[in-house]
UniProtKB/TrEMBL annotation:
Keyword match Transferase: yes
GO cellular component: plasma membrane
Pfam family membership, one: Glycos_transf_N
Organism listed in the record: human gut metagenome
Keyword line: Transferase
The name this protein goes by in its record: Three-deoxy-D-manno-octulosonic-acid transferase domain protein
Any one GO MF annotation of this record: transferase activity
Residue ranges of every copy of the 3-deoxy-D-manno-octulosonic-acid transferase N-terminal domain listed in the record: 5-163
Amino acid sequence: MDPNAKYIWFHAASLGEFEQGRPLMERIRKEYPQYKILLTFYSPSGYEVRKNYEGADIICYMPVDTRLNAIRFLRLVRPVMAFFIKYEFWSNFLHILKHRNIPTYSVSSIFREDQVFFKWYGRSYAGVLKCFTRFFVQNEESKRLLEGIGITAVDVVGDTRFDRVLQIKEAAKQLPICEAFRTGVASSQSADVPHHDFKVFVAGSSWPPDENIFIPFFNEHKDWRLLIAPHVIAEEHLKLILSLIKGKKVVRYTQTTPEEAAEADVLIIDCFGLLSSMYNYGDVAYIGG
């Protein structure tokens, strides 16, 4: 870490929050090149995919939220401002940031009336929100709720994911394995082989409760193919998915070829970094969580 540099700190829990904050991060990088960007993650699913992201100067995990960790971290980094994406409310870090008069912003946040901040017993939790310098929320309801507990530094700016979706659409990766899975034909095969354009159900960032919903449906409908990218890519989770799938040919992205994928009923994405591009190959999408 450069002791003479001025850092702008972005924190994202995971990959999804990173994508939400990315348009803002890249705009700041472009408009204010004199500042360096520090990017922290809480989840391995974010860090492992973006640890080599060129849009940030330093990328690391967020320390556990204790007062001592917050003091040490901020003493080391000395950010000139901080951005927390969506649902990130780290009490100790936020209180120390406020104590040090470091401008701190909540970006793309969204609130619901049933959250603890807005309950009669939620005063201490609401105090965490009051550590932010300003909120940039997704909708008017969130603004109304915050104003109801005395927070008026709020702007309604919409969801930054829409900005990022346009960027992703323009830069989507071509995935020959997914293309073969959809059409039933690999690019290496003869042009005489008929293209089928199967109906494809895409399940992104799925958890076991999600899979218990859509896999039984898929088992009963023979005319659909399933393209699934589980949120947790661990052998135990993949084995659980396989146990739910009945009578189907299953292949894994890292262990197959376009020719094999063309003949499969289920394609499991068992690696990071492809989720945003794979939606191009589906007819229906299910977003887990």
